[in-house]
Every structure is written in structure tokens, then in C-alpha cells.
Structure to design on (1271 residues):
């Protein structure tokens, strides 16, 4: 018989499940090797019930990984006969089509046993900055992009399969770091499994199935009730995503069909997959479509399989957002991250207060740097940079965030102690936020120096830029202006961000991330807010006048009210 | 010192100042509680000490120690009432403080708000200097440039300066020089340098901690100075100690130098007291619940020990969301804010829903019922309206409460806008705050792997014993204990806290290459430094040193802490240290990798004095008859029947060991009121603790 839980008990158990996954999540910072994980938090932990239904995911997750895992883990567990799982089994896999869309995202997964039966699967996906291959976004096929790991047993009943580890070791540039991070994945699953078992035993439960059923159903209902608030209709959007360098733009065509308590998103009419690395697998596209709907309509309820049930998605096979093997996929965020913004644009007329303008952190701006230090030892690191978030109806955009993905910056002091690079500057970019009644968030500038003194690395330092917004800036909404574009500058001159850049000792490379789009007419922005922005150096006096029509006296930093009113009136008419 | 037999604990909260005086020779206590005097908190201290003198004449000259806790620092941060602070940092990095770590603390909320930096952008200045990550000077410091930015900051009216330069954790030379120049240039200016406040890698966390220290330093120094001269003028010539967030106590001068370490000073005392009671009664899992005028804080004590964490947040934008506050990295007892306090304002928000806090009426004007001009209803006004508090026996009758003012405020501000009755509105206020606290408490307990159904709540603070019963019902806790003097009870924690101070040094070296003798030298330096700090408190003998090391696999970014015994480091074998690490790592993460190299990162030292013996006195009331303790009955609101029913009113001071009272009852003492519903009963033990147990599981 199915066990029912009263609301209070359910609440307590649910909280505890979340704290278990968050504890596993926190262990990564303590055990991981690469700064991309321990400092930039580019990983996601989750666990499922015995059937592979996603039950909870880490609070600080990366939505793309989390959403893709909700679909993928269920499939992966059936790569092996269910009845043959043993305690101590650990599976490793990075098949982009099963998971989060590129080879760097490696999943480690384990069955959790209690009283002789499987009660859960704990899984984590880590973004490994190094998975071998050619790291650029201009590869033509996935074969070039690094090591492809189908579902394999890394541990069988607790004993290590050395061959798997050796296979990985000889296919990456920095094996100590990669192996160390895989061990951290095993540790994180261990923490999770241990706590799940502890909870079952504390609470006198035999398994998680009834609890899962209850949690998933309640979450589904909550999501459906939220969807009910959106007026029925078919909301369309067609947009272009810039091709890197001289490549063609990519056309995205989407329809959000809202019908009562269900949503269907259809990508019919979208560009075919392309011969460079920005193709997106279904899972990853779904994750960012889901992100848009979840964050707009039901952000408070923790996520599990129930939240995804009301949202269906279809995309033609072989199109750029549902690519087929062996498409190149390494830089899939350059297209995939746009899904959230494009769903927002489609829904903007229907729910103008629930969405935000375009964001400079869409797509996440990532840079991979690698090379050898002066003693010949290999080093390899990756950083993620955000941009200004788009403004909303009642809120200025947050400065510099990674949206719709998530993650943190790598502290300058960590980057410098891990690599031979020096950071010269990391600062907000004035005037980069799109003007509007609500201003877009500011982008930021990061300047990196390759030393040419006795600590200089060997030539060359390889730099890969996986980013966007170099040609099309984040757009504003409802008369809001667009944010600034992204820039890639080498030794003071604009450079081509596509492909690989080989930097020399003595070089300065500069990355500007884009600002967020504004919301509403800048002529409606409260002049006091504009003055505050000027005082903080977010907006220059010149732009206050040009973009906002606010005339400020330079020395006193006071608004010339009469002149401002008159000027704004003239500009409007 | 021998003739100085008294110690006094004094806790200044947002609303009340609490005093406990103990005579260590006789074990006798006296207590006092009065309103905090925000304009000069030492006014209340004088009031309290004069009042205590009427009970123990002449005690002040026999006072060995005053141990003090204060919410001054945290309130200054939350209310943004600290000093106008400037920052001096390395060229290119003035936005570190504003950019933070850039992570979105709630991945799925696109409208999250973030805390504002304590130093506005215009007051963040840069100097063109640079130290590399291995500590070399890449670009030397220019003294004139420092003077130039100082002039800018002084012109901008800065009262305090934080210095945080890139890579100073590895080489503090430039920071030390800047500090010296600032001191020469502006001798009266308050200065905080990151290499002294938090010498650890990661520039944002270090800057945030240092800036926060700078932000509250002037008011803390001024306040502690004022307090100590006030104490002197009253005839006190003993030692003044301040409670640290970590549960130890330290001197006023150390607290003034590092105010960031006393942020949780007040609430920590309740935790230390609970820990003491846990040991005394052999209770494994305690939920310490301290509800004062402004906030309610909690701490889960598991297996007799409150957790200590090395990082926490203040001023969260979203009270219960991690990552929405300013990070502070100093050792602190694992406290959690779970709700508002008795003085928190209740109002109807724009969505037409009842809302409580975070604004508080504080001590001035205070709740409407204080009759000091407050017109807005608070939780205390609701508690009074519901009959839990006696208007004529608040603070033992020394402060009559105005019931009509309370009713009027609730009626006007809540009942009418919600179109409901006065009583329903009052119940709504009382119940909502319990519900809010229960939700947060459940999260807090679950996060620590605890179970509310097997914990004992210890209730502290003026409002704690009033709300503990409703809270226990909501979270399913079977038992509550209310210590004697619960209304001031957290101040009891001051007497059991050890004099202690924690220090840490970073020195990164691979285990195979480490020179154990130079590590021993490092530990000895830490011992010297920490005992010097302890010696300011007059102690020279019996200092206990606890050492620990932080280790990790080469290439990892964080460490595993290993406590090690005190023997000279040179006597350790390499393989012994290695195996300590492997054992700890395997216990935490399931597997270890003995073939992978490990490195030592930091060395930690806690210096403490032995915990002071403290005997909880048995109550002297002889066994009597319950009816002699009963003051009468009072109509109060039943949370079960949702109507007024008669509650037995009991005088706590007359209660005797073994007395048992059936709910519904209200047990009154001067500083607090205990509510016991009809589904619970209360028993008194030999020490005067009230044990509330539910008659059946709920």
C-alpha cells in the first residue's frame, strides 16, 4: 500500500532531501581539483528515486546540466541490466546526446542500496575544462572535440576498473587534474548516498518511492497551476544568433503554445545543424526552454521530474537545436543559452511583468587557456564570465551574472596561483547597460597579461573563446535600448574570437562582456536614478544626456530639472 | 583578586539589556532587565548596575569580571549605520567588492536582489602596486600615491579605511606599508588591513570581511571605550571581556580591533548556555531558541556540541536564502536566524497579506503597549491581547503595559484592513510568527541531519518562553526546557564561555618536502601571539593550545582540517601525518588515494583558558503546595480551541522541585512568561528548570 505523508512530515522530508543534495554539492568545493569546479561552480548534483525519476537537484545548480540530467539519467541507468547493479558500482559517461550536450560534461552515477534494494541513483555532472581534443568552437565533428565516453563501469562492486581510468589519462592534457576531479565526483556521490541511507534509517522508511510520488505530484500540480495563469495562445518568435567570425547566422523559429495547464514548444522552421561546434542536443535545448518557463512562472517550488511534466518540446531531427550524431557540439551554449531569452521574447506581450530583456551573460562567456609553464609542465584552466542581466519591469538588471546558466567567477588570486597568467583588471564597464526606464546591468572588462619575465610560460598560450554578442548586442524590451556588445581585444586591437588564439609572452588580451538590455523608455527613467548611476560611475554624464535625456550639472551632479523636462518632451515628440 | 567574588554578565540587545550577577563563593544569583538605551547603551548598563546594587550592596568593587555581549555590531551592518568607509585596493580591482562571486544564489529566480556593497563605488580607490601570487613585488608601492588617495578619501569625509591588496595573503609587505602611511597621514582614522583581519586567499571574501570590519570599527571602539569608562566611573576595576561569535571571550581592545569577530556576540551566549545545560542533563540534541525583541535565532546542538563554522553571512536580502548576504570569514557558532522578534512590526502588505518584520519597533518607541509613542502593532502587542502577558506584571510590574493601546494598534493596522476581528488579527500575528519560525527551524534542523521529533527546545529571551510552546507544536518537538531566569538566561552563557582566541597562518608546502622543524617554529609563533592576546586578559598560566592543520591533495582547492596533538611537530613522522589525512578523507568521502601527493596549507591555533567552573544552583524553595504558587486564573487564547479559555497563572519564583502543573497554564516571572497549552504539562526540577512535555505526540 502506498504510504501517504501529512503536509508537515512531507515538508520536513523534502527539505532534508534538498539538504542532502546540497551537502553533496558543497563537498565538491572541498574535493575538486580544477578551479572551474571548486571556484566557478560549474557542476550539478542530483539524485533520483529507484526508477530514475529526478527527485531533487542542487540549489546552486547549472540549469542546463540539471534540466538535461533530468532526462538523461533515466536513460543512462538502463544502459545496464537493472537487476545486475551491485553496491559499489560507479558508472561514468559523457555521451553528449545522453547528457548535457558536450564532451566536457562528464557524469558519474551510482546506485544507492538500502536493505538490499536500489532506493536511489545519485548522479553528478562536472564540467571538465580539459577533455582532450581540439578545444575550439570551429570543429566540424564531435570526433575532433575530445574523448567520448559511452556508459562504462568505472567501479564494479567497489573495485576500480583501472583500464577506464588509463584510457582517460592518456587522452587529456592535464591527467592529474582530470582524474582528481573524477575522484571528486565519486566522493560527492558517496556523500549523497551515505546521507540518503542515513535518512531512510532515521525515518524508518524502506525506500523513497512513495515520498517521490508525493513530491513529484505536488510539484507537477504547482507548475500546472502556474501555467494556468498564462493566457491561452500561440506565441511566436523568430530570432537570429550570430555566426562566429564570418559564419552564417543561425535562425531560430519557435512557437510557445499555451493551452490551459500544458505548454508545447515547437521549433519547426529552425536552421539545420551546422558544420561548426554550436549544435545543441535535445536535452540541452529542453533545459533552457524549461528554465524560461520555470523561472517566469513558478520559481519558488524546488525542481524535480514533476515540474517538467507539463512542458513538452518538439524540434525537427537534425536541426540546430536537436542535432544528430556526429555533429560538433563543444560550444553548444552559444546557441542553447539563447533558448531562455527567446521564450521570454515570445511571451513578452502576454506576460510583460514576468520576463526580462536580453542579457550579456547569454551565452555564458567562457575562455579556455592552456599551455606549459617554463618548466614544461602542462596547465589548463577555464573561466566563465557573465554579462549584465536584462532589466525587468520593476528592476534594473543585475551587473555581471551568468544567465540563464549559472556559475561564479574564478577569484583572481586563484587564477594567478593556478596558472602563469596575471590579471591586470577586472572591472565594471561604464555605459554598457542598455538604457531604459529600468537600466540593463553592466558588463565587465577583464584584462589578462601573459608574463614575459622569468615566470613567463612557454610559447604559445592557447586561448579559446566560446562566447557571443560580438555582433548582435542584448536587446531591450518595450522601447528599452540594447546593451553594449562584447569585445575581444589583443594588444589594443580588436581580434577575431572564433577559432583558437595563440598568445605570446608579453601579450595583453582583453575581454569585454556585453551589458544587459533596458526595459521601457529611458525617457521615463526617474532622473534621480540617473543621477545615482552617474555618481556610481555606471552611466557617464554624456550618456545621461544622450540616452536618458537627463541634463546634469557636472560639478554639483544635480539634475537641471527644467531643462531635462523640456528636452525629454522635445525628444518624445 | 581573591576578594573579588562577583562576576557579571551583561547582554545588550536591540530592545532589552539583561544582567546576571553571580557570587562565585555562594553561588547566589541576581538578575535585572531593562530597556536598551540606543542613544548611549551604557546608560542602561548604569541603570542595571545601580538596580543590582540595591540587591547586593557594594558588589561593584568586588566585581572581578564583566562579560559583555552586544548586538550593536550586527545592527549597524543590517541597518547600514556604520562609518563612512573607504577602500584602498590594487589598481584594476576596485569593483571586486561589487562584483562579488557573480553566482546567482537562486538559479531559477530572475528577479533576485543582491546586497549592496558597504563601500560605494566612489569611495573605492586604487593604487598602482602589485604583488604576484608567489609573493614577489612586481610593481613597488608609491608612497605619494597612497597619500594622494588618502587625501581624496578624507575630502570625501571617510571615517574608516579598509586596505585590501591583491595577493597580500602571500606577502603583506605593501598592505603593512599602506597601513603605516595611513596612520601617519591621518592618525585618528580607523584602519583595517586585510592581512590582519583575514590573511587568506580569495580576494572577494577577504575584501568583504575587511571592509565589514572597517565599517563597524569606529562605532565599536567608541562604544567599548564609553562602556569601560562608564564602568570605571561606577567603581569597577576588574576585567572587561567581550563575547566572540566563536563562543570564546576576549578583551575589549581585541574586540575593538576585530569587531567583525563579535557580530554574533549576543546570541552566541545562549548557545553556550544551552551547551552547558545539555551536558548537565545529558541531552543529546538541543534546539536552542532565543527570541528577543528584534530577532529570533536558533542553533542545533548535536551530541552536546554546537557546530563552529568558518564563514557566514550578514544582512541577507532574502532572510532564508544562502548567498544573499555579505560573506564574512571568521569563526562563528553555527547560528541561524529563524524569524522576527517580539518588537517586530506587523502590517498588511500590498498583496493584502499579513506580514511581520523585518522592521522592528526596537526599544524606542517600542511596541504600542509600551505607551512610549509606538502606534504600530508588534508581536508583543498580539501576545498581550491574547492574554499571554499580564499588563500589570511586565518586568515584574515595573513597566505597566497599555492593553488598550495594543488592541487599538492591532485593530487599526491589521484587523480593519483585513476585514477581520481584533482577536483573529491578534491570533494571526502570533500564529504567523510561529509558522515562519517553524518553517525556518525545520529547514535548519533538516540541513543538519536532525529530526525535530527528537529534539529538546531550550527557550531564551523575553519572547522565547512565550512562543516556544507554539513553535514546538508546529515542528513536532516533544519537549521544551525553560532554564531559570530564561528572560535573561543567555547572559548565563557568559559564565561558562572560555577565554579563547583562534589564529591561522597559511604556508603551502608539499608533505614530502615540508620541514617539520620550521612548522614547529610556526606553531610556536602562533602560541606566542595567541598567548599575548590572552595575557591582555591577565591570564598567564594554564593556557590550553589546540593545534590543527589543513591539508589537501596537491591540486585541490580546499582543505580537510585535522586536529593534531600538541607534541612538538618535529616529533611527528611523515607517514603518521599522511595516514591521519587518509583516515579523515576516507571517513568523509568514502575513498582515499594514498599514491597521490598531499600538501599542507594552513596551520591553526586555538588558545584558551580552562572552562570556568560554574555551578547551577539548586533552588532553595522547600517542597510546598501547588496552590500556594497559583496567582489565579486568566483568560487567554487557546491555540487548539481557537478561543479564550481560563489559564492557571503561576508564580515561578514560588515553585518548588517536583511541582507539576497541568496546562493550560501561564508561568510568570519578572523577565519572562511561559505559556503551556492544554495539551502539555510543566514540571519543575531541583534547579528550577521548567520542563514542558506534551501529553501525547502531536
Amino acid at each position: 500500500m502506498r504510504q501517504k505523508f501529512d503536509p508537515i512530515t512531507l515538508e520536513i522530508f523534502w527539505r532534508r532531501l534538498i539538504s542532502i543534495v546540497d551537502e553533496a554539492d558543497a563537498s565538491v568545493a572541498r574535493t575538486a581539483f580544477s578551479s572551474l569546479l571548486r571556484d566557478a561552480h560549474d557542476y550539478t548534483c542530483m539524485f533520483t528515486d529507484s526508477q530514475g525519476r529526478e527527485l531533487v537537484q542542487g540549489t546552486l545548480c547549472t540549469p542546463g546540466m540539471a534540466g538535461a540530467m533530468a532526462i538523461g539519467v533515466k536513460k543512462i541507468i538502463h544502459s545496464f541490466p537493472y537487476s545486475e547493479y551491485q553496491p559499489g558500482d560507479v558508472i561514468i559517461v559523457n555521451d553528449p546526446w545522453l547528457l548535457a550536450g558536450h564532451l566536457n560534461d562528464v557524469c558519474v552515477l551510482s546506485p544507492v542500496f538500502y536493505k538490499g534494494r536500489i532506493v536511489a541513483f545519485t548522479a553528478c555532472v562536472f564540467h571538465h575544462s580539459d577533455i582532450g581534443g581540439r578545444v575550439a568552437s570551429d570543429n566540424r565533428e564531435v570526433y575532433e572535440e575530445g574523448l567520448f565516453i559511452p556508459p562504462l563501469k568505472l567501479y564494479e562492486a567497489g573495485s576500480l576498473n583501472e583500464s577506464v581510468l588509463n584510457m582517460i589519462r592518456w587522452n587529456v592534457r592535464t591527467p592529474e587534474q582530470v582524474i582528481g576531479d573524477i575522484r571528486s565526483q565519486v566522493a560527492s556521490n558517496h556523500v549523497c548516498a551515505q546521507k540518503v541511507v542515513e535518512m531512510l534509517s532515521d525515518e524508518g522508511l524502506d525506500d523513497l518511492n512513495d515520498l517521490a510520488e508525493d513530491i513529484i505530484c505536488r510539484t507537477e500540480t504547482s507548475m500546472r497551476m502556474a501555467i494556468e495563469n498564462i493566457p491561452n495562445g500561440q506565441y511566436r518568435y523568430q530570432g537570429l544568433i550570430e555566426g562566429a567570425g564570418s559564419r552564417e547566422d543561425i535562425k531560430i523559429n519557435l512557437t510557445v503554445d499555451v493551452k490551459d495547464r500544458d505548454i508545447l514548444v515547437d521549433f519547426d522552421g529552425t536552421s539545420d545543424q551546422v558544420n561548426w561546434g554550436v549544435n545543441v542536443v535535445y536535452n540541452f535545448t529542453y533545459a533552457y526552454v524549461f528554465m524560461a518557463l520555470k523561472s517566469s512562472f513558478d520559481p519558488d517550488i524546488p525542481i524535480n521530474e514533476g515540474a517538467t511534466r507539463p512542458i513538452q518540446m518538439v524540434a525537427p531531427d537534425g536541426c540546430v537545436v536537436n542535432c544528430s550524431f556526429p555533429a560538433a557540439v563543444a560550444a553548444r551554449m552559444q546557441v542553447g543559452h539563447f533558448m531562455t531569452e527567446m521564450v521570454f521574447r515570445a511571451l513578452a506581450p502576454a506576460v510583460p511583468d514576468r520576463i526580462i530583456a536580453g542579457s550579456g551573460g547569454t551565452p555564458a562567456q567562457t575562455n579556455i587557456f592552456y599551455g606549459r609553464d617554463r618548466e614544461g609542465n602542462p596547465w589548463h584552466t577555464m573561466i566563465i564570465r557573465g554579462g549584465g542581466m536584462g532589466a525587468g519591469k520593476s528592476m534594473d538588471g543585475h551587473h555581471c551574472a551568468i544567465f540563464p546558466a549559472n556559475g561564479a567567477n574564478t577569484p583572481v588570486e586563484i587564477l594567478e596561483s593556478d596558472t602563469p597568467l596575471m590579471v591586470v583588471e577586472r572591472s565594471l564597464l561604464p555605459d554598457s547597460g542598455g538604457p531604459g526606464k529600468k537600466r540593463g546591468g553592466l558588463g565587465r572588462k577583464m584584462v589578462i597579461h601573459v608574463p614575459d619575465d622569468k615566470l613567463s610560460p612557454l610559447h604559445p598560450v592557447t586561448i579559446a573563446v566560446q562566447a557571443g554578442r560580438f555582433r548582435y548586442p542584448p536587446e531591450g524590451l518595450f522601447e528599452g535600448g540594447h546593451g553594449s556588445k562584447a569585445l575581444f581585444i589583443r594588444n589594443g586591437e580588436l581580434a577575431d574570437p572564433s577559432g583558437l588564439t595563440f598568445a605570446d609572452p608579453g601579450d595583453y588580451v582583453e575581454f569585454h562582456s556585453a551589458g544587459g538590455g533596458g526595459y521601457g523608455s529611458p525617457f521615463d527613467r526617474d532622473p534621480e536614478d540617473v543621477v545615482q548611476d552617474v555618481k556610481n560611475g555606471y552611466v557617464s554624464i554624456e550618456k545621461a544626456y544622450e540616452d536618458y535625456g537627463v541634463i546634469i550639472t557636472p560639478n554639483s551632479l544635480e539634475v537641471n530639472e527644467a531643462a531635462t523636462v523640456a528636452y525629454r518632451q522635445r525628444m518624445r515628440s | 583578586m581573591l576578594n573579588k567574588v562577583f562576576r557579571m554578565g551583561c547582554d545588550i540587545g536591540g530592545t532589552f539589556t539583561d544582567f546576571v550577577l553571580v557570587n562565585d563563593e555562594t553561588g547566589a544569583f541576581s538578575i535585572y532587565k531593562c530597556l536598551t538605551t540606543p542613544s548611549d547603551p551604557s546608560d542602561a548598563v548604569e541603570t542595571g548596575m545601580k538596580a543590582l546594587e540595591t540587591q547586593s550592596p557594594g558588589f561593584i568593587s568586588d566585581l572581578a569580571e564583566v562579560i559583555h555581549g552586544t548586538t550593536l555590531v550586527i545592527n549597524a551592518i543590517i541597518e547600514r549605520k556604520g562609518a563612512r568607509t573607504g577602500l584602498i585596493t590594487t589598481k584594476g580591482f576596485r569593483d571586486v567588492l561589487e562584483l562579488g562571486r557573480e553566482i546567482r544564489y537562486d538559479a531559477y529566480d530572475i528577479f533576485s536582489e543582491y546586497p549592496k556593497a558597504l563601500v560605494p563605488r566612489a569611495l573605492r580607490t586604487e593604487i598602482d602596486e602589485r604583488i604576484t601570487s608567489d609573493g614577489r613585488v612586481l610593481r613597488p608601492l608609491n608612497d605619494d600615491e597612497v597619500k594622494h588617495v588618502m587625501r581624496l578619501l578624507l575630502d570625501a569625509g571617510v571615517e574608516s579605511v579598509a586596505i585590501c591588496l591583491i595577493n597580500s595573503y602571500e606577502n603583506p609587505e605593501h598592505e603593512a606599508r599602506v597601513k603605516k602611511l595611513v596612520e601617519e597621514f591621518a592618525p585618528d582614522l580607523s584602519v583595517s588591513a586585510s592581512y590582519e583581519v583575514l590573511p587568506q586567499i580569495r580576494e572577494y571574501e577577504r575584501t568583504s570581511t575587511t571592509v565589514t570590519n572597517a565599517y563597524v570599527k569606529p562605532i565599536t571602539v567608541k562604544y567599548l571605550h564609553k562602556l569601560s569608562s562608564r564602568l570605571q566611573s561606577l567603581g569597577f576595576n576588574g576585567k572587561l571581556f567581550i563575547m566572540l561569535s566563536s563562543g570564546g571571550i576576549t578583551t575589549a581592545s581585541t574586540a575593538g580591533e576585530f569587531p567583525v569577530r563579535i557580530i554574533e556576540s549576543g546570541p552566541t551566549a545562549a548557545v553556550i548556555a544551552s551547551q552547558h545545560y545539555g551536558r548537565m542533563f545529558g541531552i543529546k540534541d538541543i534546539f536552542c531558541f532565543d527570541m528577543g525583541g528584534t530577532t529570533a535565532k536558533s542553533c542545533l546542538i548535536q551530541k552536546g556540541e554546537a557546530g563552529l563554522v568558518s564563514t557566514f553571512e550578514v544582512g541577507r536580502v532574502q532572510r532564508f536564502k544562502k548567498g544573499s548576504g555579505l560573506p564574512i570569514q571568521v569563526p562563528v557558532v553555527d547560528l541561524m536566524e529563524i524569524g522576527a522578534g517580539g518588537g517586530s512590526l506587523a502590517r498588511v502588505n500590498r498583496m493584502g497579506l499579513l506580514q511581520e518584520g523585518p522592521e522592528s519597533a526596537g526599544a524606542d518607541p517600542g511596541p504600542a503597549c509600551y505607551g512610549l509613542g509606538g502606534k504600530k502593532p508588534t508581536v508583543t502587542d498580539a501576545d498581550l491581547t491574547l492574554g499571554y502577558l499580564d499588563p500589570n506584571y511586565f518586568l515584574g510590574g515595573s513597566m505597566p503595559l497599555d492593553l488598550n493601546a495594543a488592541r487599538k494598534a492591532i485593530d487599526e493596522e491589521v484587523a480593519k484592513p483585513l476585514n477581520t476581528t481584533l482577536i483573529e488579527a491578534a491570533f494571526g500575528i502570533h500564529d504567523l510568527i510561529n509558522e515562519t519560525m517553524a518553517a525556518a527551524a525545520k529547514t535548519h534542523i533538516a540541513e543538519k541531519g536532525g529530526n525535530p521529533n527528537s529534539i529538546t527546545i531550550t527557550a531564551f529571551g523575553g519572547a522565547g518562553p512565550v512562543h516556544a510552546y507554539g513553535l514546538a507544536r508546529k515542528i513536532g518537538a516533544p519537549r521544551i526546557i525553560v532554564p531559570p531566569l530564561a528572560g535573561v538566561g543567555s547572559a548565563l552563557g557568559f559564565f561558562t564561555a572560555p577565554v579563547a582566541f583562534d589564529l591561522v597562518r597559511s604556508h603551502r608546502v608539499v608533505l614530502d618536502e615540508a620541514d617539520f622543524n620550521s612548522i614547529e617554529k610556526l606553531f610556536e609563533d602562533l602560541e606566542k601571539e595567541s598567548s599575548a592576546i590572552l595575557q591582555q586578559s591577565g591570564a598567564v598560566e594554564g593556557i590550553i593550545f589546540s593545534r590543527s592543520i589543513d591539508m589537501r591533495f596537491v591540486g585541490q582547492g580546499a582543505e580537510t582540517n585535522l586536529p593534531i596533538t600538541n607534541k612538538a611537530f618535529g616529533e611527528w613522522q611523515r607517514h603518521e601525518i599522511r595516514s591521519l589525512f587518509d583516515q579523515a578523507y576516507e571517513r568523509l568521502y568514502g575513498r582515499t588515494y594514498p599514491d597521490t601527493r598531499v600538501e599542507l596549507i594552513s596551520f591553526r591555533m586555538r588558545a584558551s583558558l580552562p572552562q570556568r567552573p560554574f555551578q547551577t544552583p539548586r533552588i532553595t524553595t522547600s517542597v510546598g503546595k501547588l496552590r500556594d504558587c497559583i496567582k489565579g486564573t486568566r483568560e487567554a487564547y487557546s491555540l487548539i480551541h481557537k478561543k479564550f479559555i481560563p489559564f492557571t497563572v503561576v508564580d515561578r519564583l514560588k515553585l518548588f522541585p517536583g511541582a507539576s502543573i497541568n496546562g493550560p497554564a501561564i508561568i510568570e516571572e519578572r523577565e519572562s512568561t511561559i505559556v503551556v497549552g492544554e495539551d502539555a504539562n510543566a514540571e519543575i526540577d531541583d534547579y528550577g528548570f521548567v520542563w514542558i512535555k506534551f501529553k501525547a505526540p502531536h
